[in-house]
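At this stage, I put together a protein sequence along with its fold in token form, as given directly below:
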Amino acid sequence: MIQKKILTLPTLLKTLKKNSKKKVVFTNGVFDILHAGHVTYLEKARKLGDILVVALNSDASTRGLKGPTRPINPLADRAKVIAALESVSYVTSFNEGTPIKLIQKILPDVLVKGGDYKIKEMVGYAEVSKNGGKVKTIPFLSGRSTSNVIKKASSG
């Protein structure tokens, strides 16, 4: 079941087309070391629609954003863990620094990111808004971050 949720972009687009009456929510990120903040965020994101698509940064994309020591877990492992969550409908990935190409092709009904983003500055804001979609943020679960988990693990 989990592997059926991990899709290439062409397969994802076909799947979404078959479900065109359903409200699609899109989010993206590294999701390197899954913690309660991630799980809570994805549960809240799913409540904004019928289908939650999570796009993961590839390993190269992650290194470009986070530095040479990241990701801790390779893309295949991160995809499997995210796909195992009940709230997540589909998982895909992207190699670029941002998911703009995915957003332009999917044109979700709702684009969502964490609370540290400013809505009008989010990648995909213009495309989703122009298409009639909504752009939202979800507040973080206080004190939960991958950076904090890594710091705690390396100091222990």
Notes: The helical segments are 9-18, 36-46, 59-66, 75-83, 100-106, 125-130, 146-155. The chain has a mean pLDDT of 91. The first helix runs from residue 9 to 18.
